[in-house]
Amino acid sequence: MNILTVLAQPTDNPDFFEVFWANGVQKQGLLKVRVTTGVADKDVIAELGALHHLLVVKGIFGQDRAGRAAQKQIAVSAPDEDTDRLQLNVTSGQIKKLMQQKSKKPHLTPFAFFLTTRFAGSNVTVSQDRQWIKPRALENVEEITIGAALDDLMEVPGIGIAAVSVHAIEQIQRRGNGLSLAEAWHQIRRVVRNLDYEVLVSEEKRRRDVDRHGFSGRYLYSTLTEWNVIVTPAKGHDRSVPVIATAYFERRPQSELVRIEKAAA
Fold this sequence. Notes:
There is one protein chain. The protein folds into two domains: 3-150, Nucleotidyltransferase, domain 5 (2-Layer Sandwich), CATH 3.30.420; 153-259, no CATH class. It has helices at 42-57, 93-99, 109-116, 166-175, 181-193, 203-213; strands at 3-10, 16-23, 27-35, 87-90, 123-126, 141-146, 152-156, 160-164, 197-199, 218-221, 227-232, 243-249, 257-259. It starts with a strand and ends in a 6-residue tail after the last strand. The protein is α/β, with parallel strands linked by helices. A hairpin with a 3-residue loop joins strand 2 and strand 3 (27-35). The protein has a seven-stranded mixed beta sheet, sandwiched between helices. The radius of gyration is 20 Å and the shape is elongated.
């Protein structure tokens, strides 16, 4: 079982927080988090930002790590049920409520979407215990800034790192006969990692996209799953990376497809 423990604490500045963290027993560090968003509960946002930085940006347990393996989303035998779960030890009870979708603070939802999808199924324990913090944590200090929604990130063939939109997850969920958010995340992960062709889109279609949205995205296709994924430019969503905007099932004839070239090693 992978275990991540965090302890968030305020500073004299209401926009700055310190989040100590430990990966298991030996590896520890300190994140100095600046929260620039104007919404309430900055302490919770700082802790969510720290979790996002460690789990998604740095990928301390691996870039494909989720709260629970895909096959574990369905019923399994009790003895092995927890062996593949991620264990999160957090400071704020709001984080547990957000993950259980029981929070009464909807303004926090955009900062927790990565937890309620990719890391759903994790074991979550709330504790303010700080006895585990060792002096070596101060030897590994980073500074991060949280000012907008916290996106989950995926590697898209032919494009690179892209953010997963709420809409894309919801489309997978709706078109998958009521999948849970966690199951929808695993499904879109499978679709994205198997994208092997780009769809040839007419200039007329691209002009319509620009007229409607202000930009035109790239249409990608998986011959294994027969799902299409539209990846839009970062500037269209005020993001720093491209965005997986939506996904849908539609068979494509080979005449519409161009193989995605693999990046050179």
